[in-house]
Amino acid sequence: MDTALVVGAGCSLPPGRYGYDPRRHRVHRLGRQPAGTPPGVTAELYVTARRTVSHYGHRAWPLLLLDTGHAAGALFLAARALGCHEPEILLEGMAESPLAAVRVFLPGRTHRPQVLSADAPTPEEILDRRSAPPPFPGTPNERALRAVLGSASHAGGGDLRWCAAVGPPRSGLIELAPDGTTLRRCAAGEARPTLAAWAAGQGWIAEAGAVLIARGCPTDADAPHIRRTHLRAGFAVHLAHLTARRHGLAARPVGSWQQADLGAALGAPPGQDWIVHGLALGTIHAEEENTA
Ligand SMILES: Cc1cc2nc3c(=O)[nH]c(=O)nc-3n(C[C@H](O)[C@H](O)[C@H](O)COP(=O)(O)O)c2cc1C
Questions:
Q1: How confident is the model at residue 288 (pLDDT cuts 50, 70, 90)?
Q2: Residues with Cβ within 8 Å of residue 4, at least 6 apart in sequence
Q3: Which DSSP letter does residue 48 get?
Q4: What is the pLDDT of residue 242?
Q5: Distance 168 CA to ligand 1 centre (A)
Q6: pLDDT in tens, 103-140
Q7: pTM of the model
Q8: Is the CB of 238 under 6 A from ligand 1?
Q9: Cα–Cα distance, 54 to 17 (Å, whole number)
Q10: What is the pLDDT of residues 29-43, one digit of tens each?
Q11: Atom of ligand 1 nearest to the CA of 130
């Protein structure tokens, strides 16, 4: 993934367009900023699909979109942690590139209406948000599941629906009720082994305490819809991951879904309700359990 910065007025760098070298953590000037560049800085995210396609074939594109959504989420959280006004997330573009952008307005310089609201994270929380290695034993409590589902659906936009698969004693799928605060069951029965099979056979998912699921991309979705839902899902799962950590949960994104027609599995017409992204959740990390 490549990042370019479009710097407007009121930043610590002179206005212009800059490239970013992640190995040296340095920016280099590429040229003038485009006419009409707003104040603040816009980070544009680009991908080079070639390498991912040679590794993952036709599954590369969804993964690249999810990854880019996660990168947008990381920038969003970093901007919030630095005290910037609510960053603007641009995930709806039609152009081939950039795939996504995050626009940051500097504190005290400009004021824009809030796009999303979330408690500002601390730098420590951001550094702490790492993917835990499997396994993920321990079912999260209701409070934590409510918070994770709330965070994901708030950040996830209108195209996606969110639910979580939980195991015994009341195995099934749960989701937020329309009031946005209580949990309700949307399906009964153990879903985790099926999720593990759909996630390219990653067996540890069958044992995860819970699995947050983003669903909603139909087979006949057009390219902008596919792009938007995957970018949004990556973005929202990234924020939900931070929420999970705040509630003491271990978490790991799951993006390699194959033939994961959740709608059809629940009795609806096929091809309408594919799983787009997921987040495995657990309470006790295996290492802690082993040393307990
Ligand atoms: C879009 C996306 C999909 C992922 N899918 C899987 C997966 O299917 N299985 C898995 O074990 N880890 C998966 N991961 C976890 C990554 O391997 C892990 O996040 C990566 O090593 C970076 O770690 P970090 O989250 O600590 O920064 C996924 C991560 C992302 C961002």
A1: low
A2: 17, 18, 19, 20, 30, 43, 44, 46, 98
A3: -
A4: 97
A5: 26
A6: 998 665 444 544 444 578 999 999 999 999 999 999 99
A7: 0.94
A8: no
A9: 31
A10: 999 999 999 999 999
A11: 26
Ligand 1, residue 256: give the atom nearest the CA.
Answer: 8
Nearest CA to ligand 1 atom 21: 131
Same domain? For 163 and 254 the reply is: yes
Nearest CA to ligand 1 atom 23: 131
Question: Residue 187: which of 154, 150, 215 has the closest Cα?
Answer: 215
Report how far ligand 1's centroid is from the alpha carbon of 200 (Å): 14
* Cα–Cα distance for residue pair 211/166, rounded to 1 Å: 7
Domain count of the fold of the chain: 2
254 C-alpha to center of ligand 1: Å?
6
Q: Is the beta carbon of 202 within 6 A of some atom in ligand 1?
A: yes
Residues 69, 156 within the same domain: no
205 lines ligand 1 (CB under 6 A): no
Domain residues for the domain of 29 are 2-127
Atom from ligand 1 closest to the CA of residue 69: 1
pLDDT of residue 110: 47
- How do residues 136-173 score in pLDDT, each as one tens digit? 999 999 999 999 999 999 999 889 999 999 999 999 99
Asked whether the CA dihedral 229, 230, 236, 237 is positive or negative, the reply is positive
Domain match, 159 and 280 both? yes
pLDDT in tens, 49-104: 888 888 888 788 999 999 999 999 999 999 999 888 789 999 987 677 899 999 99
CATH of the domain at 174: 3.40.109.10
Question: Does residue 202 share a domain with residue 104?
Answer: no
Which amino acid, one-letter code, is at 246? R
